[in-house]
User: Fold this.
Amino acid sequence: MAEDRDRTLRPRRQRTHPGRIGLALAGGGFLGAAWELGALCAITETIEGFDPTRLDAYVGVSAGSFLAAGLVNGVSPHRMVQLFVEGDADDETLEPSRLLRPAYDAWGRAARIFPGTLARALRGVADTGLRRPHAALWLAIEALLRGLPDGLVDASPAERTLARLFDRDGRTNDFRRTRAPLRIVATDVDSGRPVAFGGPAHEHVPISRAVIASSAVPGLFPPVRIGSRRYVDGALNKTLHASLALDEGAGLVFCLNPLVPFDGAGAGTRRVSRSGVGAVLAQTMRATIRSRMSVGLEKYRVTHPDADVVLFEPPHDDAEVFFANIFSVASRRRLCEHAYRTTRADLLARRGALDPVLRRHGLSIDDRVLRVRTPRLVREPSRTRNRWVETRTGLVLHRLSRTLEDLERAMEIAAARAGERGTDAADAVDGPGVARALREAAAA
Assistant:
């Protein structure tokens, strides 16, 4: 059975090559995506030669599939911060409130069959109630649960938004036309097996449809029909599926996982056991995900001994990440900024171990950028923007303001990289490193 599952994902394996770089992004809902965007922005700014829109292989699971599909289409992480975290005021916005709606169809079907479901439950209670009252109660609950809808939220608006985003000039909603291999993993709900959309036999599915299928958290979203099959969250089998990037020949794979168990054993730290059932369930899920991922990372050392895998994730004592309110827009902003700053700190702390690995693949950590004052990534929300930004003049001024802020940010990076050469930031603007910084900061 395990071999059959592997075959559905890895029909072929290429030899890994130094200098070929892949990216594997795990899930974690809207907040997990916000964390990954903040981390990606930090990595992009501080690792010389790393351009997340020009890699050699992409793998996305659940919320990570949104980001992987955008990156392979040339949408930079800085631009996605504007669209997804800040809710940029244009028709490309990925504001979560515009991407989802209640699953009216699923609730309607449940309402239509509810009288029959209730009647069967009552008959079961009548048949066994006097003889086995406890059994009758559980039979009634089971019958009523069967009548519930298979999902609470409809992601159709998100699918249409992504399809419009990917159908624009220079982008594609077709796996067969992407610049580099893109694999989006979902789980066949009837077989329990993972399926890599974008791979052989599954490349005809629109990217936007595959993203929605990979992100369909069971119970929250209805299973997504593709052909004659139905699919749910791709993280049910594995956390990252980074082996798909390795099998495409990537010699170095960056892995981002926002879901780690919280270690609150230290004195003065918040305890999971005292934070309610939601925190306990989240801890259980994260511990399972992290344990499973550790096994996978160890396996790659055997299956791909010549490749390097670099993992980025929050510290285990990071209460800001673990206890973030998943329904809060402010939490999304705060978490993205937090991930950006902590990832920069992580890169600075690990630079001695990471730099030799990166240099084997033509990359290096820019120590000068890491040591300067950390600029702000996520802009504070404007209290007055909604009153005027939707007008044509207001929108132009708003975008001009953002561009000027991006240029100021790029000049800070330029100044750091020019410092050791004895030049100033203005003289450094013509350098290739600063040109890349300008592209990163002004990616809109």
